[in-house]
Known about the structure:
By secondary structure, the protein is mostly beta strands. The protein contains no helices and eleven strands. The strands form two sheets. Strands 2, 4, 5, 6, 9, 10 and 11 form a seven-stranded mixed beta sheet that branches.
Amino acid sequence: VQLVESGGGLVQPGGSLRLSCTASGFTVSLYFMSWYRQAPGKERELVASIAGGNDNTGYADSVKGRFAMSRDNAQNTVSLQMNSLKPEDTAVYYCRAYYPLSTNVYWGQGTQVTVSS
């Protein structure tokens, strides 16, 4: 079982990035998939989630209207489209998979997003 994030990098304020999380060893459509982020000196926080079995999504207030999470069942991936990026979005972004009512929780290794001019 593995989650691999990609797409991070350095972007100017107001710019966009698209993160991807590719899963192997399980089917993302059956799992509750989430993106978390952790900035230096801060706790890891939930950014966005998408429910298994449907496309219901949820977002932290700080990113609502700017970020959009999606799932591609054929590619077994989830993505996070990040627009209108701000310096406070700078963090390591992690992909998480959770199978409801189980102890199956998987994390990716993280990808760095830096928003700076």
